[in-house]
Model the fold of this input.
Amino acid sequence: MRVLALLDGTLADPDSPLLRVDDLGLMRGDGVFETILVVNGWPREVDAHLDRLSRSAAMLDLPEPDHAAWRQAIQVVLDNWTGGDEFALKLVLTRGVEGGDGTPTAFALGMDIGEKVLRQRVEGIAAITLERGIEPGLAERAPWLLLGAKSLSYAVNMAALREAERRGAAEVVFTTSDGLVLEGPTSTVVAVTEGTLRTPPATLGILPGTTQAALFRGAERAGWVTKVEPLRVADLRAADGVFLVSSVRKITRVHTLDGEPLTDATALHTELNAFYESEY
Done:
């Protein structure tokens, strides 16, 4: 099922053409997006997602997103959704048509979550590490690379996932050229050791995770320690548990890394899920 809403509060037919062929989001990936998880009619972390949409738009010199209009579009999708209890709500903002008047293209799309992702939430995943060609400090030195922006330019991320499949895995953990852990193509990396949750810092040029932030809040209330600090691949191998977290995949356990089994974190996965769900 899909529900499509525009920023003026009107519904559109998701099976009818919406984008022009010369839309810069299509032609050049010149745009930004966010994906919100909706559970039982309630969208999670809306403020954080809209703030991140604004941050990404600013990095691309796009017009400041109108949060009130986006909330209206979100509500239209919620009011018209008749599918399952959980679905993904994608917000898309592009620069508009090439040579146009500068009016951006914007819409909110509600859609079902794939069975593959739902299965991975329960069973866990195998991942591989791949170099991303990023070094510490690059985000500050080269802002035009848009490191940390959630842009529509996902060709590299999708290529990485295809490489993972060729190697018999389902996911990727990106690393710097000198072995620091970055993030997944569509997720944040969290490692847990002796009651401490750790995730890499955004200063490395990665996207700050909304789901990771919610998980950390829940864990802190339960008395656990959380740290945002550099991680190396060796830290993942030595951890009590490694997880890829995002709005749609929630907290997904990594059971194998580069073909080597990691510590069985099944019980820890259950505990972390409880921390995350305690936020809602």
